[in-house]
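Q: Got a minute? One more chain.
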Amino acid sequence: MRRSELEALLHLLEFAEGSSHKPVRLFADYLAGDIAQRRGEPGSVNEHRRALAYAIKTKERTERAERRQQECDGK
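A: Always. Here it is, folded:
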Protein backbone atom coordinates (compact mmCIF):
# COMPACT_ATOMS: atom_id res chain seq x y z
CA MET A 1 0.00 0.00 0.00
CA ARG A 2 1.09 3.53 -0.63
CA ARG A 3 1.43 6.00 2.21
CA SER A 4 -1.44 8.09 0.79
CA GLU A 5 -3.69 5.00 0.78
CA LEU A 6 -2.88 4.34 4.43
CA GLU A 7 -3.66 7.95 5.29
CA ALA A 8 -7.02 7.71 3.50
CA LEU A 9 -7.79 4.54 5.44
CA LEU A 10 -6.89 6.26 8.71
CA HIS A 11 -9.37 9.04 7.91
CA LEU A 12 -12.05 6.41 7.29
CA LEU A 13 -11.19 4.78 10.61
CA GLU A 14 -11.53 8.12 12.40
CA PHE A 15 -15.06 8.31 11.02
CA ALA A 16 -15.75 4.72 12.17
CA GLU A 17 -14.56 5.57 15.67
CA GLY A 18 -17.50 7.96 15.93
CA SER A 19 -19.89 5.05 15.54
CA SER A 20 -22.40 4.37 18.27
CA HIS A 21 -21.53 0.65 18.08
CA LYS A 22 -18.74 -0.26 20.48
CA PRO A 23 -17.44 -3.22 18.43
CA VAL A 24 -17.00 -0.96 15.40
CA ARG A 25 -15.08 1.58 17.46
CA LEU A 26 -12.80 -1.06 18.97
CA PHE A 27 -12.08 -2.63 15.60
CA ALA A 28 -11.26 0.78 14.16
CA ASP A 29 -8.93 1.48 17.08
CA TYR A 30 -7.02 -1.79 16.68
CA LEU A 31 -6.77 -1.44 12.92
CA ALA A 32 -5.59 2.15 13.21
CA GLY A 33 -2.84 1.04 15.58
CA ASP A 34 -1.69 -1.59 13.11
CA ILE A 35 -1.68 0.88 10.23
CA ALA A 36 0.24 3.41 12.30
CA GLN A 37 2.97 0.85 12.91
CA ARG A 38 3.10 -0.02 9.22
CA ARG A 39 3.52 3.68 8.42
CA GLY A 40 6.50 3.82 10.77
CA GLU A 41 4.70 5.93 13.36
CA PRO A 42 4.40 3.51 16.28
CA GLY A 43 3.35 6.04 18.86
CA SER A 44 1.67 9.18 17.65
CA VAL A 45 -1.36 7.89 15.74
CA ASN A 46 -1.95 4.96 18.07
CA GLU A 47 -1.86 7.18 21.15
CA HIS A 48 -4.38 9.50 19.53
CA ARG A 49 -6.71 6.58 18.84
CA ARG A 50 -6.49 5.29 22.39
CA ALA A 51 -7.10 8.78 23.79
CA LEU A 52 -10.18 9.11 21.60
CA ALA A 53 -11.47 5.70 22.73
CA TYR A 54 -10.95 6.73 26.36
CA ALA A 55 -12.83 9.99 25.79
CA ILE A 56 -15.75 8.13 24.24
CA LYS A 57 -15.90 5.67 27.16
CA THR A 58 -15.77 8.52 29.64
CA LYS A 59 -18.57 10.36 27.85
CA GLU A 60 -20.72 7.21 27.84
CA ARG A 61 -20.17 6.70 31.58
CA THR A 62 -21.06 10.32 32.27
CA GLU A 63 -24.25 10.07 30.21
CA ARG A 64 -25.28 6.86 32.00
CA ALA A 65 -24.69 8.48 35.38
CA GLU A 66 -26.75 11.51 34.36
CA ARG A 67 -29.62 9.29 33.19
CA ARG A 68 -29.57 7.35 36.47
CA GLN A 69 -29.61 10.60 38.40
CA GLN A 70 -32.57 11.87 36.37
CA GLU A 71 -34.43 8.62 36.97
CA CYS A 72 -33.79 8.87 40.71
CA ASP A 73 -34.92 12.51 40.77
CA GLY A 74 -38.12 11.60 38.94
CA LYS A 75 -39.18 8.97 41.49
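A: The chain has a mean pLDDT of 77.
Q: Perfect, thanks.
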